[in-house]
Amino acid sequence: MQRIYEPQDLIEAELLLGMLASEGVEAHLAGGHLLGAIGELPPAGLLGLLVEDQQAERARGLIAAYNAAQPLPGEEPDSYPGTLLC
């Protein structure tokens, strides 16, 4: 297995795990159980997404595309330019 990405927090980790699973890439989260011990401090590299060696390049590409995504034109309200409301 290869560590392919270090999420900023548990929310990002879970979001990326779901995205990868939807694309047929089985990923595992390392370090998620350690977050309870550090309270509100940043994880500082404790979290990591792991995938099998043969899926590593594809997973890295999917995460890079996900991180580079921009909102589609017309999805932003006129009262909040530059802000995407979810």
Structure, described:
This protein has 86 residues and is α+β, with helices and mostly antiparallel strands. It has a single domain (2-68), classed as 2-Layer Sandwich (Alpha-Beta Plaits). It contains 2 helices and 3 strands. The protein has helices at 10-22, 56-68; strands spanning 2-5, 27-30, 48-51. Strands 1-3-2 form a 3-stranded antiparallel beta sheet, with helices on one face. It is globular and about 45 Å long. The relative contact order is 0.22. The mean pLDDT is 82.
Short description:
This protein is α+β, with helices and mostly antiparallel strands. The protein has helices spanning 10-22, 56-68; strands spanning 2-5, 27-30, 48-51.
Question: What topology does this entry show?
Answer:
Elements: E1 2-5, H1 10-22, E2 27-30, E3 48-51, H2 56-68
Antiparallel strand pairs: 1-3, 2-3
Domain DUF2007: 1-65
Protein name: DUF2007 domain-containing protein
Pfam families: DUF2007 (PF09413)
Keywords:
DUF2007 domain-containing protein; 3-stranded antiparallel beta sheet; 86 residues; DUF2007; 3 strands
Rg, rounded, reads 15 Å
Q: Uncertain segments of ≥5 residues (pLDDT<50)?
A: none
Structural class: alpha+beta
Number of strands: 3
CATH topology: Alpha-Beta Plaits
Mean pLDDT across all amino acids: 82
SSE order: EHEEH
Number of helices: 2
Strand order of the largest sheet: 1-3-2
Task: Name the CATH architecture.
Answer: 2-Layer Sandwich
Residue share in β-strands? 5-15%
